[in-house]
Input
Amino acid sequence: MKLTMAQALVKFLDNQYVSFDGKETKFVNGIFGIFGHGCVVGIGQALEQGGHSLTYYQGHNEQGMAHAAIAYAKQKNRREIIACTSSIGPGAMNMVTACGTATANRIPLLVLPGDTFACRQPDPVLQQIEQPTSVGITSNDAFRAVCKYFDRIERPEQLMTACINAMRVLTDAADTGAVCIAMPQDVEAEAYDYPDYFLQKRVWYMDRSVPSERALAQAAEMLKASKKPMMIVGGGVTYSESYKAALSFAEKYNIPIGETQAGKGQIPWNHPLNMGGCGVTGTGAANAIAKQADLVLAVGTRLTDFTTCSKWGFQNPDVKMVSVNVCSFDAFKMDSTAVIGDAKLSLEGMEKYLDGYKSSWSDEYKNAQAEFFKEIERSYSVELENGFSQTRALGIINEVIADDAVVIGSSGSLPGCLQRLWKSKGENTYHVEYGYSCMGYEICGALGAKLAVGDREVYSMVGDGSFLMLHSELYTAVQEGKKINVMLFDNSGWGCIENLQNNQGTDTFGTRFTMRNAESGMLDGAVIVTDYAKIAEGYGCKAYRVSNANELYEALEDSKKQTIPTLFDIKVAHKSMSDGYDSWWRVGVAEVSTSETVQACYEDMKENIEKARKY
Output
């Protein structure tokens, strides 16, 4: 078929399918776009021309729309995507941050930025970066650092190998992330006789990776030698839909479970073996068990610093690590004995080597869980004289919203409160991006999650700082008639970072939203009071102003009657988020300081570094 490169790209994407556990699904369901001179007459023309089933969504910030696409793919367990296209230059660059978010979280994201002319004859064109060291460098080279695959289509026939490689990466459980296909604006419009077989329906099989028997036997022997093992359930368990196998394994061998942010929400929150979130933003129960464990069975997790407390969380001097992961890069972290394979097949495969095994745990994890359940209830019932507690507000929301509602978050103190305190009441209802912890993901991601779940409610947990950073796709939600619920917790600053600052001995500086003081010349004047509800109302949302428990209860009930996006402007007290629970996070404390508190924190850091495992 004689088609332009952009027309062929659209037709190719429209015919891609994936198959997982025998179920076939259309892979690309639409394209987000903000049109400009780098794409509007290329891929924009191809989309407008029709002859495809892709839905076009109008984004309002390139980073925002790409974050919505990430959330869509995450909510769909990586088996469906929405691609993103943009103009050249600044429009393309806005998607670089989102590509970092996707790659860090192992979520498939396809970005299609316009690029400068391959022929170079009109150079320099509007928005073109020129580097005297190489005229072949364009803005889009910035994508190379944050993408799993990058290609630039400088001839229309190059599209074929680029698309096959893009799909290879996007559908690879072990190596997925952001993929960038840069499209020079002249090549987008050039025609080529594309062979029919390139444009026909293509099914990509997402087969479960089979682990080796040698690895299964070795891991099982290590487990049999342990007395107090602990399982950490990560995002790989979620995306491979292996949570039933993980829970069955834990029950059979009496192994307590800790969750990562990406793994939370699949195992029932109140299951006797579920200790909750593990690590810096974890529960007291999970962190107490982690310190006692003599073997950690890490399933589908990257073992980030927040999960391991900067490798400090496992204090048993004899502790050993076994890591089950489809990705060898992740499987060998922390000097783990690696089982490279699908989580479900790996756990089921180990069982034949574990006859008669049972851990030696007795009441330790049960007591730890019971104590932390009391702490959840205490946090949810906190009453303050100086304002509305953030944890009290979360407790009310957790109580009132539907069991199948999706809660979404990403940055600030809210992911910590959610991982520690949130009671997930259904599968795939907990959606927190914490691989990149990207401010601005929350509202844009809520739109993507809503596109994925249909009639189910979606609640975005966002701080005022992150709202100010990026909320562009709230407008898109209004435009699309997609009801999302924005729970905006206003504590007048970046409260999470202020806590970090204060906990490391530094006084509050630059982390509260205050006026500049004319006398001191510093940002230590009056706290700025912002009516965020009015902003939402200006977009066409239903807004609520909340400053106490009764107002929140009433607003939540009324919001269930609404059919348009809602925003809750919740004024919460300063420093009313949850605390850390026997955890440690390594950050760079100043080695030299005039402050005695900073000096003390530096000495404390040195002591904790000695306790951390070294790799």
Remarks:
- The chain has a mean pLDDT of 97.
- The CA atoms of residues 150 and 180 lie 5 Å apart.
- Residues 364-380 form the longest helix (17 residues).
